[in-house]
Structure formats: C-alpha cells, structure tokens
Write a structure and sequence with these properties.
Layout: H1 8-37, H2 49-60, H3 66-90, H4 99-149, H5 166-182, H6 186-193
Length: 196
C-alpha cells in the first residue's frame, strides 16, 4: 500500500503551527535564562527565574516573543518540509528508511533550517539584551526612587532610552555588519542543529 503524499503547503502549515506552540511554551524560560546569564555581579536585578519572569512581564508585557513567533514559523516549516524531502529522496520505492538514512534526512533538514535559525537567534539575543538593559534601568530607577524616599541621596535618573524594535535592530545589524552579521555564529548553529 503506497503512502499518501501530503502536500507541501500542508507540511509548511503543520510545521508553522508546531513551531508556534513550541516557542510559546519555551520562550519564557529561554528569556529568563538569557537575562539571568547576562546579569553583572554588581547589578543583580533578578534573584531567580520566577523573579525574572514576573519583573519582565510587569515591565514589558506578555508580547516579548513576537520576533520568535514570527520567525519560528518559517524555521519549523522549512525543517519539516526539508525532512520530508530528504526522506523521500533516500527511500527506495516507499520502503522504511534505515536508521542511518533517517539520521541523514534529519541532518539535511537541520542544515536547511539554519538559513532561518541563525539570523533569528542573532535578532532574538539582541532584543533580549535590549529588553534586559531597559528592564534593569527601570528597576534600578525605581530602587533609586525608593531609597531617595527613605532619606538617602536621590539618584540621578537617566532618561529612558526607547527600546529598539526588531526592525530597527535588523537595520542596524545590516548597516554595521552586512548580511554576514546576521549569520554570525553560523558554525555553532550548524553544529547544534545538524546533529539535532
């Protein structure tokens, strides 16, 4: 009995929906991890992962994942469609693939996925860092106001710099580093995604 072929648009939609669900679940944890790792010892703004998430939601709202949600759709769609393409190319007359061929199909899909993953992660890290800096300024300013009310010297509050958007960051990266700047870390991403 021949396997029923699923159309490419259906594979792309399936991959996109799976990616949206996955990123919605994982993004808050990834954001907290990045912010906790980027803290300077002298300026510890967050005490734990839950403290980081609570302060982030209070200062930035729930929609910090917009770039990830936007870019993960084509990333997962490419990965799913490429995996099916490589599986089809490696199969003989619809026979079940050997473990080695399954692994080769996955490696090929991971290689194709990196086209979207590398610039997406570069942008994600830049946005998370910009959000971290903005959140730290806001929290430190609030702490300065509290200590000023408690009788300590009032701190001079720096003017709040507007948080850059994904579009602004992309333009800045392209202007300063070119296309190659968006693909910085390509080798490490390949080493992670191809075996995965």
């Amino acid at each position: 009995m021949a396997d029923k072929q699923i159309s490419l648009p259906a594979k792309l939609i399936n991959g996109g929906i799976a990616g949206l669900i996955g990123v919605t679940c994982v993004f808050p944890i990834d954001l907290a991890k990045t912010r906790l790792q980027n803290q300077q010892n002298g300026q510890r703004v967050y005490t734990s992962m839950s403290d980081c998430l609570i302060k982030t939601v209070r200062s930035e709202g729930y929609f910090g994942a917009a770039v990830n949600l936007t870019l993960v759709t084509p990333e997962k769609a490419i990965k799913l469609a490429a995996n099916d393409f490589f599986r089809h190319q490696l199969s003989k007359d619809g026979q079940k693939l050997t473990l080695l061929k399954e692994m080769l199909a996955g490696c090929g899909a991971g290689t194709c996925q990196v086209i979207v993953t590398t610039p997406m992660e570069m942008l994600k890290i830049q946005l998370q860092d910009a959000g971290r800096i903005a959140a730290q300024r806001k929290i430190l300013a609030a702490q300065g106001q509290l200590s000023a009310q408690g009788g300590a010297q009032p701190s001079v509050e720096a003017p709040a710099a507007p948080r850059p958007t994904a579009t602004q960051l992309t333009r800045d990266l392209l202007r300063s580093r070119g296309i190659a700047g968006l693909y910085k870390g390509l080798g490490a991403t390949l080493l992670r995604d191809v075996p995965f």
